[in-house]
Amino acid sequence: MVMISSNAFSQTAEDNLKNADETFAKGDFYNASVYYKQILDNDTSNCDIAYKYANSCRLYNNYIDAEKWYLTIINRNNRNYPLAAFYYAEMNKYNGKYELALASFKDYYKKNKDKDDFYTQKAKQEIASTEFAIKLMKDTVKTEITHLGKSVNSPYSESGAVQLGDSLLLFSSYKNVTSSDFESFLPDAILSQVYASKISVAGYSNAKLLKGAINDPEINTANIAIDKKNLKAYFTRCVQCDDGAMICAIYVSEFKNNKWQKAKKLNNKINLEGYTSTQPSIANDNNKDVLYFSSNRPGGFGQSDLWYSIFSNGDFQQPVNLGSAINTPGNDITPFYDNNAGRIYFSSDWHKGLGGYDIFKSEGSLNQWTEPTNLGYPINTSYNDVYYTINEDTTEGYFTSNRPGSYFIKGQTCCNDIFYYLNKPDLTKKQIKEELKKDTLTVSQTVHLLLPITLYFHNDEPDPATMRTTTDKNYKQTLADYFAMIDKYKSEYSKGLDGDDKQKAINDIDSFFNTYVRNSFKDFERFTELLLKDLQKGSEIKITVKGYASPLNNEEYNINLTKRRIASLVNYLKEYNKGVFLPYLTGDSTTKGRLIIYEEPLGKSQANKNVSDNPNDLRNSVYSRAAAMERKIQILYYDYTIPK
Question: Which domain holds residue 310?
Fold first, then answer.
């Protein structure tokens, strides 16, 4: 498969139109828009092509261009496209232009109120919804939102994150399976699969395909949910039909013998033939498993509704609709049931909200629910906000959004990414004063109690097998990947041992990672906070960082390696809190504070002589605790000048 190339520009308008219509029919809205735009570039007066182009842009989430071309059609007063006015209003809202959206929806409804169709009903609902959005934006929720970054998110789409315990994140991701070229974005070039990222004090490791039988290399797999015993995984597999539509079904895999077993499709009560069942969430009610899911099956209130099914007598029973309190004439999707709170979270494009899809919550269970409540801004935006989940620590969790700030291939709102949220408690003035009283030492005194601070690395990291002296990697991500290897270290270092010797080797590695590596990074995070405080006072701070390497490789190589390790620390500071240290590193701070970093890369000259330098003895030269202790950098000195 190849991407659309420059020779497409030389094709006739007739060829481009044929290609555009065919790719649109297959659901490939981005490439359809490319073909339509080529025709428009040569004939901007063609309303039919302009309308098709606008629809393509809307359907691949390019709201800005869609709004522009719907308005062009409206201004030409062409009555052949009555829905252009509705979609224009919708794009106004998606682009956060609430006042304009309100006026546009009112205008559309006024002209069509005698009709009894979906769009007229929707316009009426959107008038109330947009008025609600204007009020809601004035009442911001105290929630901290964090984009998960490149270890989890990619320029394609990620969604449906669920955290297991405090150490593993599972989620779905579309990846290009035929090319590394992001210009190639046709439907048969990407495949959704379930990925896993290990979580440590350093953050999230680079995501890898989930091992076991859950993923199928030829079928889209997504929307994973794990039961409370961590013994069953429910997920969706989707197949694209000839007409471009996706038909999805829910499967289950059991965890046995330390691996996920072959997936089984749930019964035809859940997976009704010819319809989609997707986005499972598994809950428990009176000691019985309850499956919540979204489906477009008959018998609902709208396009996609939420349903539940109780596991009884060895199988899931006939699904029941959650009812009109939850379900609407629109799409109600991505359920997540919080058993602890007795509450369901879901997304809807009909209930009053800021988007797009907004996230809502409702108390209850089965088909008895309170009126849904919008979670508010900044969880919800004018874009699509879906797949809300909650961790064991109920103040935090994840959701999926195509808001600006997500990585993208074509257009800043084309693709979904995963975001982490933390709900912050309201602190009274008295509580704030109590927190301040705890900081009885001066900043410099506290810093010197922390020194020296040692940061550890995996063998030949970052950027192995190079003579470069710099790296683009941030130490925190390097550390996350290092932590993700703890099981491999235990396995390699205990290989060939038995009994107490084997357990001692495993304990040595566990102690190294969880005592030395973890605690050292915590000290470094505290050091970073204190450093910033000192700089904000206008101090000039000089820190000395010394780099070390294990005896593997020659002196010149290892000196360059230690330089890369020091560079990863500098990158951490540069990227910390959206670049707050950058003015201090460049000398451009308004407080006159200045941060100067002295580097001392020592290579292997001071490595422990008892550590193996035999590349064929990986157990001792790479995976031993002794070797791991040598791969480090240290912050040794902290000198400061108090501002006058």
Answer: 146-423
